[in-house]
Amino acid sequence: QICNQHNAKAPNLEQVFHRMAQTEPNLDHDVSWFLLPSYWAKMVVALISFLCFANSYDGDFVFDDSEAIINNKDLRAETPLGDLWHHDFWGSKLSSNTSHKSYRPLTVLTFRVNYLFAGGFYPVGFHVINIILHCTISVLMVDVFSILLGGLQFSNKGRRLNLAPKTSLLAALLFAVHPVHTECVAGIVGRADLLCALFFLLSFLGYCKAFRENKEGHNFSIFWVLVSVILGAIAMLCKEQGITILGLNAVFDALVINKLNVLELIQKLLHKDKSLENAGLLRKGLLFRITLLMSGGASILYIRWRIMGTGPPAFTEVDNPASFADSLFVRAINYNYYYSLNAWLLLCPWWLCFDWSMGCIPLIKSVSDWRIIALAALWFCLIGLICQALCSEDSHKRRILTLGLGFLIIPFLPASNLFFRVGFVIAERVIYLPSIGYCILFTYGFSLLSKQAKKKKILAVAVLGILLINAIRCALRSSQWRSEEQLFRSALSVCPLNAKVHYNVGKNLADKGNQSAAIKYYREAVRLNPKYVHAMNNLGNILKERNELHEAEELLSLAVRIQPDFAAAWMNLGIVQNSLRRFEEAEQSYWTAIKHRKKYPDCYYNLGRLYADLNRHIDALNAWRNATVLKPEHSLAWNNMIILLDNTGNLAQAEAVGREALELIPNDHSLMFSLANVLGKSQKYKESEALFLKAIKANPNAASYHGNLAVLYHRWGNLDLAKKHYEVSLKLDPMAPGTKENYNLLRRKLEQLQKKGG
Predict the structure, then answer these.
(1) DUF1736 domain: which residues (predicted)?
(2) pTM for this one?
């Protein structure tokens, strides 16, 4: 409510504002809760939000962090900053068919700054920024909730009045400690949601500032409306949900600034009542401001559409099975079931999971499925709240319920599957903004109960208990996000039918070298989802390494039949076929992999190995050269070229390739070793010695390095040093091939020299 007095002789304008505020019911009046000065309230919220998530500060990079941060070339200094505006969140070109079209350049820019200041991929700095962002957002929520719950009023000095200090503190605490926010805070990729929320709230507060100098609602600041639009655009460049703030600003303007009665307006429109002016639609510049918001939003969406292209992102059935259902009924009923589960996560955030896809939530295919009850409960509650929001005679109730529903539903719309298919079933991160609406509704319900309750303190203790339980749950869940092993295993009890959970547990075990346990989880992933090609590929790889080649071939062949463009599976199938000495089939598999992934250096490397086994030396060198062109730091390809040229007597060419490789990868000790061998054979002993010593300094426990340096000294005539390095080599590896024979030859030679000298 915006108030102003035209009478210049008014004795105390501040009193007028407080008096007018009392004409509406005050939520704080019947609530037994802490009343703190604004500064202290914000300090308490900041401290509690920090304590909830502080234990995530030294966590690892987990789950999606690998693709969005570690493997994202956009974070590195060599990538031009301009490329960020043409790439998606994962570093792929937006024009690519494989792009997810998630356009968040400002979030990626903050990752890049983190990387730059940390001097590499050190997760602590990334986690600390996420925690600080959540604390900042939670503090801003005190101001936001004071407006949403208490209304918008300013003093004669232009200072905004907090008319609901108790309930705004409670709502902000509920937001700060909600466990569903853990994914956004403890998972570094959640930075997108945090930055989006920050600018989302700043846009809302900026829009409220537009009415600071208001005179009976007729005057407003166009500057602050435009600032609000710009902040909304920035929010969208952090994550797509940010654009929804423009719609919420319009709703807030209509309900709070213009005190629009939606039901009354609908009735007048239906009856073609000419008194729409009195309904508030045309008063106070509402249409002009909404036009500004809509024009700004349309412009932002158009620019984004031009940048990202018109094609929708390509998702698979396992990402979002309901969206691939043939029946419209099945799609609709499952979408609504997903909404009910999201609502349940807000109400009871105990069962949390990093991924809800791949069979975690089986499709509802019949009305006889008992889960239909969840849909009925959701819509029963929503319809009841909507009726109260529209039909209540209490304008205060109408305003709070409508704003609560607006903040609950509107930010969720981009994730609802209503406008476009999304790449997930449920994602806890997308509930970060809608939880604002939940906190409004919860706090309003608490105030109503307090009004009816005789023992208000017992009710306050119960709410304190909820806050404490949520805070403990936040701390526990944050600890699970500290490492992939804990995160993935925590999901086994929540989503035992989720093939991706078993796949990720298996992958984590395989990365740690526990292949036997990994096989068990990969097999379970394939059992749960017989079309899970990535699990088949990884299982086939492990079986290949364990020399179980026939089963590996079966799995990889099945994977490429299911997904014919799966390049990695084609390459791995080629490796297995090569091991089975079916060379023609292996060659065909390699070329099929390259056909589906043009820039595939590892496949060219393996193709080169095949050609080398077949003594097709020119083809092998060409394949390895292609690998190094595509990936200049491909050490194995460079090494194989040097060794092949060395073995075929092309020492000059081998030397040239070795020098070229070391210019690109100057600290690679294996390249130093290979080039040192070539130089030794070319009788460039001094240079060869220098490279051998440099390689040994980098890798002092390599027996072959000491053994070959000993051979160099042996040829060079430096027999004492040769003897020393033969002995070091044999100490490191007593079975080193050829070293013992050479050492014995040297000893006999030394004995002969001693006899001659004697």
Answers:
(1) 311-383
(2) 0.84
